[in-house]
Amino acid sequence: MVIRLGGQVIADTTAALRVLETSHPPVYYVPQASFPSGVLTPASGSSWCEFKGHAAYFDVSAGDAVVRRGGWHYPAPRAGFEQLAGMVAVYPGRMESCRLGDEVVRAQEGNFYGGWVTSRVVGPFKGEPGTMGW
Predict the structure, then answer these.
(1) Is the full-model pTM beyond 0.85?
(2) What distances in angstroms separate CA 94 from CA 2, 104, 114, one per listed residue?
(3) What are residue 81's phi and psi, to 5 degrees?
(4) Whole-number pLDDT of residue 109
């Protein structure tokens, strides 16, 4: 997986974790150590996932680009999601590009979810217009 922002590669790893949730395309979590120093800056705000727990956000920056709350992590993931400790997810639609192998990822529709849509993933997905009541 390769993530680009501001004309720079900000993550290049084979150690990502793929997380699947009902009615969502996968979200990929990257080891925080895969990001160069200074790319991730703690941001204000938080959210709650009934499965994974408390999420905290990062501003993501490289070159002249700054994406406010462009990434998130679970500082103390709930039981069953311990593997997410030390991992960071980014919103692919807010990055310059995200690639899985040779394929450029499309962002999941909607402004909350961070799913990675590829040719192997078929919807409909929660988050698209008319799906928030699922």
Answers:
(1) yes
(2) 14, 13, 10
(3) -125, 25
(4) 80
